[in-house]
Amino acid sequence: MKKAIRVIIILVGLIGLCVFIYVRYEKHYRERWTSRTSPLHASTITDLCKRLELDANEKLCRLEKDVYAGDFYPIIKDKIQPKDQEWMDYDQINELLGAYIWDECYVNPGEKGTISCTYDLRGYGAATISTWFTPDGELTNLFMHVLKD
Question: Cα separation of 130 and 132, whole Å?
Answer without folding.
Answer: 7
